[in-house]
Amino acid sequence: MWKTLQNICIQITGQNWFRHIQQHKLLSSEYLNNDSEVGKWMKCFFGLSYLPPDEVSDGFCDLMSIAPSTTSSNISIFSDYILENYIASDSNFPPTLWACKPTNNPKTTNGAESYYKQYNSQFYSAHPHIHQVIDVIIEIQSDTDLKINSINNKIINFKRKEIINKEIQLENIWNEYKNNIINRLTYIKKIGLKCHHSKLV
Questions:
Q1: Is residue 192 a contact partner of residue 44, using CB atoms and an 8 Å limit?
Q2: Phi, psi for 52 (deg, rounded to 5)
Q3: Which top-level group of life is the source organism from (predicted)?
Q4: Per-residue confidence (pLDDT) for residue 174, from 0 to 100
Q5: What are phi and psi of 73, to 5 degrees?
Q6: Is 86 exposed, middle or buried (0-12, 13-18, 19+ CB in 10 A)?
């Protein structure tokens, strides 16, 4: 259960970093420019989420050691945000909450978000009639029973091929790092460039 929550935190952390980038016009334009050295560097930060928590601080230092040389203060806006909120020992979100090696556990809260979206879409007013609410709850219960029966009957919900391929690639990169075939910085770069956000999920 903890690993699943941690993987969800990885997703949320990435979304928060991407939101921070979007709030700064110059950061956002650099990040979205595939040819930008600064953009590629910022994308590498998303690889920190796939390090063991005790290595995140060193990984951050590795990334700072290759920071693009620029006269702009945009780099420090982003790196200071990451350091103060996610890396520092007194940060609000220490690495133990959001960093771990790649796993095949769920990485989003899409199930819960989907439920609430579906539930809320059933109502057309802020204060629906009680009978309408009861009907919606009964319908949701029927759907839930159907899903539970599917699970009990061993009907498997298969992962999409691209998800499976991505998981395999992440696991391969992790094994290269674990077996000292690649160093930590290369690992962070590979994972970050593969797992960075390009839109809010």
A1: yes
A2: -60, 145
A3: Eukaryota
A4: 93
A5: -90, 5
A6: buried
Scan for tokens 């009680």, then name that residue.
130
The torsion of the CA quartet 41, 45, 51, 56, rounded to 10 degrees, works out to 100
Q: Which residues of the chain have pLDDT under 50?
A: 1-8, 200-201
Give the per-residue pLDDT at 153.
82
Of 51, 39, 41, 63, give the one whose Cα is nearest residue 13.
51
Percentages helix, strand, coil for the chain (3-state, rounded to 5) are 70, 0, 30
pLDDT of 44 reads: 92
The enclosing H or E element of 59 equals helix 56-65
- Beta-carbon contacts of 184 under 8 Å, excluding residues fewer than 6 positions away, are 51, 55, 58, 59, 62, 177
**Which pLDDT value is given to residue 56?**
93
